[in-house]
Amino acid sequence: MQGFKKLFTVLSISTFIALSVLILGPPLAAQEPTNQELLERIEALEEELQYFRDILEANTEKATEARERAVAAEAKAEEATRTAESAAASRTARPLSDTKWHLAGYADAGAMFRTNGGDDTFAFGHFNPVFHFQYKDIVMFEGELEFEIDEDGKTEVALEYATLNFLVHDNVSIVVGKFLSPIGQFQERLHPTWINKIGYAPAGFGHDGAQPSSEIGVQVRGGISIGKRSMVNYAVMVGNGPRMGHEGGLELEGFGRDDNQNKAFGGRIGFLPVPYFEIGGSYMKAAVNGLEGTGALMPTTGKVKIWGADAAYTRGPWDFRFEYLNTVRGALNSAEEEGGEVEALDRLVLKAWYVQLAYRLSEITSSPFLRRLEPVVRYGKFNISGNHHLEEENAQTRLNIGLNYWIAPSLVARIGYEQRKFLVEGIKEKLILLQAAYGF
Amino acid sequence: MKLLKNLVLASAFSGLIMGSGLVLAGDPADPSRPDPAQIARGAKAWADQCGRCHNMRAPAELNDEDWYVSVTHMRVRGNIPGDMIRDIQAFLMASNKKE
After folding, report:
1. What is the value of ipTM here, to two decimals?
2. Residue B76 to residue A165, Cβ atoms within 8 A
């Protein structure tokens, strides 16, 4: 560009001079030039002009060539971009289909050794496949089966849960079917063995415990962000509710048909001021019918009320959990077993709590082996009043000390020590637990 | 009268929920067109939310479809809001590729 300007200036000046010479004659016409001289000068000027014309032409040619080259380069660049884009698109997956599915679940195997006499047991494992199907962002099905081997070697299959989850709103899902009870945190969130730091339920949180395990009915649930990092979450449920169990106990499970007019109603609300700290409160109200039987008394209905509180602190390598549940069944007339004699049963109170602390060593060591270790302790108590037999059998304190070795985020090998102290008879039971668990 | 009032209130509420649901329940994220801002939000939400109940699962563990479904599962199980879930899905589907 600079060159052109100069050239143009030179050309204009020379043309101007040439023209002035032609029209006005030489400015200093001291001596009149001869025609011959003038002609020679004009010729010289013409030559000069031609020279500049040639340069101009050459430059124009170059410019055109350069422009052509630029256009070609641009086209190439465009093509390259297009190729890169399509490569990127094929590297990330194509858009997903409307129906998507995922096979998940978990499995574990282990052994239990009693240190003070009694039988050692091998491989009391689970195999729990979980099926997920999702149609767009409208509905999702989830179903879990549990395969277990009982003491006699028979395989037991149970439907842990099976629900249709309707994603009606960013903050609201409607869940229908058989679901894990949202009361408390252990059942719904921690019980799978690849999640549970100890591998077994705390006293009072498993079968015959104070915590409902499942429910058949409807749930409305969701989470709502508050400000930048806080969140509230909720689950409200209506279900068929519990039934009377054997020996005056409660079966806090989902039943396919309600045995009375009173639906179970309850839920949990959780608050997270920051993502790594949650406190929750649970409540459930239901009723149970006394079991039919012989004798003068007629079975009556008893009220069931559950309330609980839980907390979780899960920052970095720390994992702290606390949970308390208070389950009360009012006095009622019922047989202890179906067809037995109907008796007046006292009010039954089940109280269960635990605290658990785990710490992953990953922050304090660079050793690849030690980083995978996670020591854990849990202490809990299960109190029962109002039914001597159940109290004798189940009321206890339970101390667990364990060590997890995390091979992958959901693959763990663990060893643990458990001490159960039964409250009625004061007997201590000591166990060594080995387990490998894998969530997939 | 009270029942009627409650019924009207209840249907208005559910109408509201369903209505906004229809607006918000957009088409799932198209993984071939990742939005960098969404992925950044997703990374943060993933770090905040996904280690609350169990160990953080590694992005490379699952493919796009499995992540999509699994994270929807966590939307329900973990009571995590849908907008956050879409960001987490976008993040995981952008970070699970093995080069």
Report:
1. 0.77
2. yes
